[in-house]
Amino acid sequence: FEALPKLLTIWLDFADKPKKLKTAEKKLNQIIEDLYNGLANVPNYAWYTVLTQMLSRIVHHHEPSFQVLRTIILNVMLEYPNHCVWYIFSHAKSSDKERKTRTQKLITKVCEENTRHPLTRSIFATGGLFEKLIKIAELKIPKTNRKRQMSLLKDFNMDLSDPIDDLVIPVQSNLQIQIPSQLGSKYKGFSRSSSITFDGFDDTVNIFFSLQMPRQLTVRGSDGNAYRLMVKSDDTRKDAKVVEFTTMVNRILSTSTEARKRGLQIANYSVVPLSDHFGIIEFVMNVQTMKGV
Q: Which of 5, 42, 63, 93 has the fewest other C-beta atoms within 10 Å?
């Protein structure tokens, strides 16, 4: 998995170069052919680790390269439907017209060709939840209102008490795939404990009186535990990239025997953009802010 980010960068940057010589064009065609031939040898859980990088390149203008990207993304989506949709839908709500169109076409294609697949149910569940979470984040709360707790039903006119079985809760323990020490096609990537779904939201919404006034929601998981998510009216895409970097560092540390002995890892949490202007951040308990220290 360490090589895949570099592979994508070299391949797609090379494909993006204008006015290539015939020899360069021939080499690029060979790369495309080798990628298609090699797809069966690289398991989908390895491609999952670079899913967000592939999605960021979904507007690539080299059509053969885009077709390969789309094939890989579709394979990963079909393998991990309850997890992948969190990353897909933010691109479907992008302000970039081409990105939005390509992502929506991808979603439409997978729904039309896989009507009975769990991914189709996950897509419908995610679409509805995204809309509701964005509405919660964008609701204007007067600065004069000093209520630290509000009601989903009374103040936001929203009932989220029903379970959602086709979508995992967007927390690090669910979205972080486990990589085996040796590649194998039978390895699933996510255990049952990493596939906790929604059993419903609590009605209480905690309000933080900072500049963006984020809202904290409590989700009841299918395992009976409570998970707290912060819905924020802000561009969280840069935050998500920082978390991706620290996640990669943790994966590399986990391959080192000495690092494992010393327990070296970065404490991480989940950041999932809902669109260019809204996002979800996993709420970390029992910590202090720098200002508080």
A: 63
